[in-house]
Amino acid sequence: MKQLILVWLLLVGGTLACVAKEAAPVMGDAAMQERVMKLSGELRCLVCQGQSLADSHSDFAIDMRNKIMALMNQGMSDQEVKDFLVDRYGEFILYSPPFSGITTMVWLGPLVLFTIGAGVLFFNLKRRRKTVTETTLSPEEESRVHSLLNKESGDKHA
Questions:
Q1: pLDDT attached to residue 21
Q2: Looking at the predicted structure, is the pLDDT value of residue 109 above 70?
Q3: ∠ CA(66), CA(69), CA(73), 5° rounding?
Q4: CA dist., res. 42 & res. 45, Å (int)
Q5: How distant, in Å, are the alpha carbons of 36, 45, 89, 97, 128 from that of 40?
Q6: What is the pLDDT, as a whole number, of residue 132?
Q7: CB of 44 closer than 8 Å to CB of 82
């Protein structure tokens, strides 16, 4: 009897989960929602770090979208909201940080490392090519090589 009740609860619970509604948008105004989501797409979720605030479902991202909406409702422009968040969380919150002294290594580091690696590879290949030169054998050396090769091939057949 207990097993029957357990199976019934699982079936009813599974059915109810299938008809669950999607969460309603936080913002009421469609234009405001679009503006918040556009700006949120340019900002990094500090919890997920691999997602934007628009893509993340973390509590932090939800709170940040609500904060962005509140700041926009106060009359702040998109740039003012960005500046507020950068002042509060640092440039790490921006997906595309501006080119400045601090972010120079982020922007130029890969290019510098690639250039150094390509240079090292080029010079090593060039040096290796110089060391590998064709050498000609004298007639005595050639006959010795042939005799050694014939001796080895004779040992294998024996």
A1: 41
A2: yes
A3: 140
A4: 10
A5: 6, 9, 14, 15, 53
A6: 59
A7: no
Query: What's the mean pLDDT when you consider all of the chain?
Result: 79
pLDDT band, residue 49 (cuts 50/70/90): confident
Residue 113 CA to residue 124 CA, distance in Å, equals 16
CA dihedral (98, 57, 76, 70) in degrees, to 10, reads -160
Distance of CA 139 to the CA centre of its chain: 62
For residue 41, what are the CA distances in angstroms to 24, 50, 133, 157?
19, 12, 59, 74
Q: Name the superfamily (CATH) of residues 24-93.
A: Cytochrome C biogenesis protein (1.10.8.640)
